Structure formats: structure tokens, C-alpha cells
Amino acid sequence: MLLSFVAQQPIQVGDAVAVSTTVSGQIIPANPSGLVSASVVGVAIDTVSAGGLCRVVSDSAASVYSSLSPGSSYYLSPSGGYVVNYATYVTEFYQLGVSSLYLTQLGIAVNQSSIRVNPSEPKLVVSGYL
């Protein structure tokens, strides 16, 4: 499904996005630091400035990437916005030195440039238990 939202902040193509809690109906780059901001609605297929209209794939293939591993799961990065595989998620999590973050699976790579977007409910993960 392809949806359109107004961007509250700049959005890059391929960013995982969440609905803003401060401005109704607008989107922001998703961030794993909180449950609401880690609740991904989809993947941006446009690069837009704040106030621009951004198209978001919410339940379909998003062909906006390169060098993906087909069949692998991809997640919201611990740094927010972009997507990473699980090994990279774990590495970034420990590099940030945080005690906990949310883990949100975005989908599975269907080829080197596409993820079948199907965001999961965020799960709280704690340092030492990944």
C-alpha cells in the first residue's frame, strides 16, 4: 500500500518513518528510543524537506535500497531512520552504549534492492540480552 504524508522533519528515501506525536498526521524518521517513535508505519520512497509531501510504502515491496541480502530480515537502526540487518543492529546497539532500545523488524529483502515492508510491533531489548 502506498500512502502520502506531510513530513514534519527532513526524510530521506529508504528511511523508516513513524507518525509524529506532536503534529497530527505528519511523519518523522522512526527512532528506537521510544515505543511510539519506534512504531514504524512504512518506508519512505521520496526524499523531502520538512513540510514536503512524502510517499510511504506500508505493506508492499519498497525498491529503494542496494546490496541487501535476499531472504534476510531488516530492522530499524539503533541510530534511527535507516534500515540494517540484525548483526548490524546488535553492533550499533552496543556502540551507542545504551541500556535499552526498541527492536522493530521492517521486513524481509526479496532481492538486492527491495524489502517486503511489513513492520512488526516494537520489542524492548535490554543490553546483554540481544
Write a structural description.
- With 130 residues, the chain is mainly β.
- The chain is built from one helix and twelve strands.
- The strands form three sheets. Strands 1-3-2-4-5 form a five-stranded mixed β-barrel. It has a five-stranded antiparallel sheet with strand order 6-11-10-7-8. A two-stranded antiparallel sheet has the order 9-12.
- The radius of gyration is 14 Å and the shape is globular.
- It starts with a strand and ends with a strand.
- The relative contact order is 0.22.
Give the secondary structure arrangement, pairings included.
Layout (H helix, E strand, L loop, with lengths): L1 E6 L8 E4 L6 E4 L10 E5 L8 E5 L3 E2 L10 E4 L6 E3 H11 L3 E4 L1 E7 L2 E4 L5 E4 L4
Parallel strand pairs: 1-3
Antiparallel strand pairs: 1-5, 2-3, 2-4, 4-5, 6-11, 7-8, 7-10, 9-12, 10-11
